Amino acid sequence: MKNIIYKYLILFINKASIMVGGQAVIEGVMMRVPGYFATAVRNPKGEIVINREEYIPLVERLNLSKFPILRGFLHLVDSMRLGFKTLEWSGMVAEEESVSENKILSFLMTLGSICFTILLFMGIPYLLTQYIQNSYLSNSIINDDLIFNLIAGLIRMSLFICYLYFLSYLSDIKRLFQYHGAEHKVVYNFESGQELTINNASYFSTKHPRCGTSFVFILMLVTILTYSVTDSCISILFHYEFSILTRILIHLLFLPLIAGLGYEVLKFLSTKQHILFFRILSAPGLWLQNITTSEPTKNQLEVSIKALKSAFGDEKIKTFEGKQFNADAIG
User: How far is 134 from 122, CA to CA, in rounded Å?
Assistant: First the structure.
């Protein structure tokens, strides 16, 4: 059960679709670079175990990198698939388990987790919003769908922040957030052009503008606008009155569009951090990383550096190390 909680929390906060970067895994870090990814995990004996594999993104395989929104959705699908794979492997290494997985139980747990997520971030906000709207805003002259999605969006954000905050007090989650911070520091170290060392990485921030936490926050903002527009269009064109269930179903259908839009917004903002206005827009996502990232130990930084160096390989790392990059632009 602990691994199930780990998986969905890690995937929730690590959804950034960037060219060089990665995610925290169980007792380690996965790093992704052009052509490969590597996962480094510290086992119970204190040894760092590494797994490196070739990695060609769906967008490249299908030659769709020039198609906005669609490429964002495909990047998200890729990161989810890769995330599950590395989490499974890291869990076995960190806990020294090789027991075959019960596929039926795993399917039921996955289905239950998905239902829980929909209930928490759609069902509860929509029920509360409907109650507020019926009780206090029944005579509003403002578009009902706009008001509904604005209130639901604010409730969703509040629930998300509370969810992360309370989970952050669990000891295992605290270690996860430290590895998350280690991943960010090492990516910053790499981008700076400085030699990849524990000492150099330790000076960088644990907060990164392309982090998955920022992505999820941007996603929640995009949902307010997107769902307001789609709901209004459906209501006007088809004279349709939503129930909670139909609203959830329709909104789920539009999730690929929202994921793609969120990716494009995050990608744009990450390249404009030198402009004050765009830094302000990125600020809430960075603030949220005060919860999802923590200062790592030297041992955790060592694991993260091993993951990045292993992903590049001994020869390729020499080509990139020592040069300044915006990691998203490396090809």
Answer: 18
